[in-house]
Amino acid sequence: MTFTHLDDSGHARMVDVTAKTPTVRSATARGTVTVAADVVERLRAGDVPKGDVLAVARIAGIQAAKLTPTILPLAHVIGIHGASVDLTVTDTGVDLEATVRTADRTGVEMEALTAVTVAGLAVIDMVKGLDRAATLTDVRVVAKSGGRSGDWERPGESA
Questions:
Q1: What CATH fold (topology level) applies to the domain 23-147?
Q2: Which of 86, 95, 125, 138 is an active site residue?
Q3: pLDDT digits 0-9 by tens, 85-135
């Protein structure tokens, strides 16, 4: 078995994508922050003491997508040409979805996952004084397009 991120000696390495042709690629990831019912009501009312939770989380997620290679050591530095982070308050918390787009040599799945994760962490940071049990769960890629492997969608989820 060959591992792309290991050299012949078994040491970690960044995969060389220099020869690959840039193509349009996108990835969408989702996750959930679960909070107490009273926090849901405060989120809906815009009455969280730290401020606009959804706006802060949206910006944090977009920034995180752009900074992914600074925290994941084998991720490539690629151009992020589009990033959206959508947050929806539900009866149990906040659903998060991030879509990241590029025209580059490698995919943006890690950037989409990082965007969702950091947006979720921002939500928790903003509400932790109200709910110490707030939980980030179910972070996953739900769709990707472009590149050699083509399009993919997680079974049972539409992007």
A1: Alpha-Beta Plaits (3.30.70)
A2: 125
A3: 999 999 999 999 999 999 988 889 999 999 999 999 999 999 999 999 999
Query: Where are the domains positioned within the chain?
Result: 23-147
Residue 138, SS3? strand
Task: Name residue 31's beta-bridge partners.
Answer: 96
In angstroms, the Cα distances linking 86 to 3, 20, 112, 137 are 34, 31, 12, 16
Q: CA-CA distance, 114 to 39, in Å (whole number)? A: 24
Q: Does residue 104 carry a catalytic annotation? A: no
Distance, in Å, from the CA atom of 25 to the CA atom of 101, rounded to the nearest integer, reads: 6
Length of the chain: 159
Q: Which residues of 72-108 are buried (b: 16+ CB within 10 A; e: fewer)?
A: eeebbebebeebebebebeeebbbbbbbbbbebbbbb
The predicted structure's pLDDT at residue 6: 66
